[in-house]
Design goal:
Radius of gyration: 21 Å
Mean pLDDT: 85
Strand order of the largest sheet: 3-2-4-5
Number of domains: 2
Number of strands: 7
Strand content: 15-25%
CATH class of the largest domain: Alpha Beta
CATH superfamily of the largest domain: Response regulator
Largest sheet: 4 strands, parallel
Order of helices and strands: EHEHHEHHEHEEEHH
């Protein structure tokens, strides 16, 4: 499971960097490297683009994992060049940007947009599998999340537009509820398709999100 990101437009990054002259670039060796948005090659390319807008890149570093507790120790390796920078341009998911901002007493600028949590189906290709909605119904839908697999994000389906097992929004895409039907049928649990699920309760999806565990529970 990986945090799937995409590069922000350079125009947006340039606007963020406008007040600063000296930039240090941080990448991530885990998710952003796998999605080719913040690995060594992309960081080097970003360095060239930042220099093209007349900024001075004081240095760069690709941390093993930008979002974990070792990020601060990793950044200590960049002491000097990072201290001399006016800001840090971070090429990682939002969790990595947040982690860096907690460890660095200077502006932290995101270079990527975080899209979703994805499952790698083949090298370099990821499929959205979780919306982090806080009310998981995978037990009723044979492990297929309708919020992410259905173009309309329906909790009950299929809709009236499905045709031959394909989605009416994207005819190249399989209908999520046809997939759910087929899998439940194979499992002998087709009765679950008749269950009407209530409308999504957005109060469950806490903002800011947090989990609270009692003393006798284990948190992940």
């Amino acid at each position: 499971m990986k945090s799937i990101t995409r590069a922000k437009p350079m125009e947006e990054i340039a606007e963020y960097l406008q007040p600063f002259n000296r930039i240090y670039i941080l990448g991530c060796g885990t998710c952003a490297t796998m999605t080719r948005t913040g690995g060594v090659d992309q960081v080097v390319q970003m360095k060239e683009r930042v220099q093209e807008i007349d900024k001075w890149v004081t240095g760069w570093l690709v941390m093993p994992t930008a979002c974990d507790e070792m990020a601060e120790a990793d950044m200590e390796r960049a002491a000097g060049n990072l201290d001399y920078a006016d800001c840090a341009l971070v090429m990682s998911c939002a969790m990595g940007v947040h982690r860096v901002s907690e460890s660095l007493q200077k502006p932290v600028i995101p270079a990527l947009d975080t899209l979703f949590i994805g499952l790698e189906e083949e090298p370099g290709h990821f499929r959205e599998v979780c919306d982090q909605c806080g009310q998981c119904i995978l037990g009723e839908t044979a492990g297929i999340c309708p919020l992410t697999a259905c173009h309309k994000g329906l909790l009950n389906g299929p809709c009236g537009g499905t045709d031959g097992g394909k989605c009416e929004v994207d005819s190249d895409r399989d209908c999520a509820f046809t997939q759910i039907y087929d899998r439940l049928k194979a499992q002998g649990r087709l009765d679950l398709m008749r269950r009407a699920r209530p409308a999504r309760d957005y109060h469950v999806e806490l903002t800011p999100k947090r989990a609270i565990f009692s003393d006798n529970e284990e948190g992940g």
